[in-house]
Design goal:
Elements (H helix, E strand, L loop, with lengths): L14 E6 L14 E6 L4 E6 L5 E4 L4 E7 L8 E7 L3 E4 L5 E5 L10 E2 H6 L7 H8 L3 H8 L8
Helix pairs in contact: 2-3
């Protein structure tokens, strides 16, 4: 197990996450971090997700990424974004929703919860009453979203 082999990015998101947790790297035990390799096709996206039990440190090996995270409700759900280039490092704080988008023409890092998959693809489904109030949308919108196929790039 390692990160030598590029992941297949021929999918609807144009990205592939190769995860490495404590099972593969015992040295990560109790550190609250994990490791992953993310490969991106041009325009590829690692969709909004969160790591409930770990901080993510991302290193851009090649290419150009637009990255961002959203602060907590107490901080007005403020979006922070930055364009990263080869050699840049970025930290996504534990538990915050974040994403990465390849805005260059080339390719390039703990438990993952992809927001759309978790909220609208939960089994059994989250009650439509909960979702309509939380997202302030009509039940028809919730029904539509729950019926979609949510692609998982992990």
């Amino acid at each position: 197990m390692g990160f030598r082999t590029p992941g297949n990015t021929s999918n609807p998101l144009g990205s592939k996450v190769t995860q490495a947790f404590v099972d593969q790297f015992p040295g990560l035990n109790t550190l609250g971090i994990s490791m992953a390799r993310i490969d991106f096709a041009p325009g590829g996206l690692n969709p909004p997700h969160t790591h409930p039990r770990g901080t993510e440190v991302l290193v851009v090996v090649e290419g150009t990424l637009l990255v961002g995270f959203v602060t907590s409700n107490q901080l007005n759900n403020t979006l922070f974004t930055k364009v990263l280039y080869k050699g840049d490092v970025f930290v996504f704080p534990i538990g915050l929703i974040h994403f990465q988008l390849n805005i260059g023409n080339t390719s390039q890092n703990p438990g993952v919860i992809t927001i759309a998959n978790a909220v609208f693809g939960a089994k059994p489904p989250i009650s439509a009453d909960v979702l309509t109030k939380a997202f302030q949308v009509d039940k028809k919108v919730v029904d539509y979203l729950q019926a979609q196929f949510w692609y998982d790039n992990n």
